[in-house]
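Aim 2 progress update. The chain analyzed this quarter is reproduced below.
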Amino acid sequence: MRKRRPVLVGAAYAWLALVIALAVLAPWLPIAGYSVPAGASRLSPGPGSVDLLLGTDSFGRSLLSRCIHGARVSLLVGTGAGLAGLAAGTVLGLLGGYLRGRVDRLISLITDALLAFPPLILLIALSAVLTPSIEVILIGLTLVTVPNFVRLSRAQAISWSSREFVRAARNMGAGSARIMTREVLPNLLPALGSFLPVVVAALIVAEGSLSFLGLGVPPPRPSWGGMINEGKSALATSPHLVLVPATVIFLTVFSLNQVGDHLRLRFDRTL
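Predicted structure tokens:
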């Protein structure tokens, strides 16, 4: 019998679908621009106008509009860096796990070196040396993400390379390239794909941390971490300036972790 899907997982998928849809349709939604004042400064959330639904910031800009446009930055950075890290880590891990020998030792050495370097220090160094932008953040987060996918891909490749169907393909004269792409790689993708939402969640938090420190996307373009940074000075009098973007980050990261766990239980063949 098919197991019933938990309500929490369904709510997580619904939230992510809503955030993605709003981020994609942001330029065409009937809301105020993220840099245009929509009312008095520091208005509390309340019913009425759509732009004032979540209140306004210190400059009178709509928090709803800034959260929606901030989702474009956070999702772009998190998903882009996650997919780039997935592609690079899968290839390197597959090569090391299947070929072994010197190739595996070299890839493991590079991976261990990247893992030994504190990720936040690396991101801060890149943002301090280079001009903060989406491209710089993408490069930094990709470098942080690759070692995790290399480790997972390598472990999976070692496990699947010893299976009977791989030995049968090798005995039938199949080359290493064909075995890796046709026999081993398809069995790696379910585990790696289910791990991707968890990594994207961590990358969204990392991007928010950089923006909170003032090393993320430069203003006036909004980001969730930047909104928290802008509202922290008025936390005592206007807590919604911090609570609104913090709640959006929490729900998004929580939903991504729930989706990752669900995909892992559904598709990971090693369980």
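Residues 19 and 137 are 21 Å apart (CA to CA). Residues 63-99 form the longest helix (37 residues). These observations will guide the mutagenesis experiments scheduled for the next reporting period.
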